[in-house]
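Look over this one:
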Amino acid sequence: MKEKEIERKLAILGLGIHILLMIGVTMATFYLTFFDGMGVLQSVSPTIAWGILFVHVVSTTLAFALIQKLDGDLHKAGMLLIRLGAAMIVLTLGVAMIQSTLFIIAGSIGVRRMNKAKAIM
């Protein structure tokens, strides 16, 4: 399998997991906002939940754009995927750990592949 396909599949897998998690975060946020939260969700502030939901929406939009950019400027897209993954880990308080790791791996593969291409030339 080509590296280009691997990095695209990793990024799409991360995006799919991210969208599923975003659906769960959306449901939990609305539950916290309108029903005052119960059980485990009672310890989370609705403000924090809305902040995490906002980060998920923004990062999903950026991930879509970066996956499209993988065909163009690979080095820049790879670096942005790495930054997006690192920012998501911090800003979602660790909730987005799996998909962030997949974005970081896909970005690393892109940067490595671009560096190999420059070394050959």
User: Anything to note?
Assistant: The chain has a mean pLDDT of 82. The longest helix spans residues 3-35. The radius of gyration is 17 Å.
